[in-house]
Design goal:
By secondary structure, this protein is mostly helical. The chain has two domains: about 190 residues, no CATH class; about 55 residues, no CATH class. The chain contains 14 helices and no strands. The relative contact order is 0.10.
């Protein structure tokens, strides 16, 4: 096994490929005020682009302040609506932000640091490894990409192995794997292939005897057995072997 959680793998990949030690958690703290609906300022963008914390300028550049500073005033309301109802407002907000920045990767960077629980950075290495479908425009491309990252976050085995809890964590994990390759990529693919994704959460009653019999089992085995019990309770005719297949949404 190629050891390390997502954070350790990310640090390794960034150091080996770019020769720097990243510290992007500092950036998240610097822009946390934007979660409250405060309008983005150009100073906020410069805080995100701090090359001492991650290699931003190696790949991207914000539009000049003259081009977008006047348009940033509306961003507070856009971010507020996004936080208010992600499912309803997301596509429209992404479209409006993309009109301001004219680059969906820059929009994704902004959202990744303001709302890391929901967003990751749209980048070619992660796009390639994710296998996300291309859409009819940049916004649809990014939404398809996010859908893949969010589905990966829902995979029990991957959450347990790599300790990912946010969409941004998954993004960091996939970037690391794309750069490190080899056994890191093989292990991830093996987990992804055999994984399952429970579509719903249930409260079930289990006897003391059953709990004792499962004490020595690992978390993945326990998860599969519980999923089997749930499916059997809903569909008494289903075979236990069926639970070994990935559960489709």
């Amino acid at each position: 096994m190629a050891g390390g959680d997502f954070k350790e793998l990310f640090n390794k990949a960034v150091l080996e490929n770019f020769g720097v030690h990243e510290n992007i958690e500092i950036i998240e703290k610097r822009v946390v005020h934007l979660r409250t609906g405060t309008a983005i300022t150009y100073e906020d963008l410069e805080k995100i682009a701090d090359d001492s914390l991650w290699p931003f300028s190696s790949f991207w550049a914000w539009p000049s302040s003259e081009k977008i500073e006047g348009k940033l005033e509306e961003t507070g309301q856009l971010l507020s609506k996004l936080k208010e109802d992600l499912e309803v407002n997301e596509k429209n907000i992404l479209f409006k932000l993309n009109k301001i920045f004219k680059n969906i990767s820059l929009v994704s960077i902004l959202l990744r640091f303001v709302f890391p629980e929901y967003y990751g950075i749209y980048s070619p290495p992660v796009l390639h490894i994710s296998g996300a479908d291309r859409g009819k425009d940049e916004v649809e491309d990014y939404m398809n990409y996010l859908d893949v990252l969010r589905r990966i976050l829902g995979i029990y085995e991957i959450r347990e192995r790599y300790k990912v809890i946010r969409v941004a964590d998954v993004d960091m994990l996939l970037l690391s794997i794309s750069k490190l390759g080899g056994n890191y990529l093989k292990e991830f693919n093996a987990l992804f292939t055999k994984s399952y994704q429970p579509a719903q959460t249930y409260l079930i009653e289990i006897s003391d005897e059953f709990c004792k019999s499962m004490i020595k089992s690992d978390k993945t085995t326990k998860g599969r057995v519980l999923e089997a019990l749930i499916r059997l309770s809903k569909e008494p005719c289903v075979g236990i072997g069926d639970t070994l297949r990935p559960i489709q949404h």
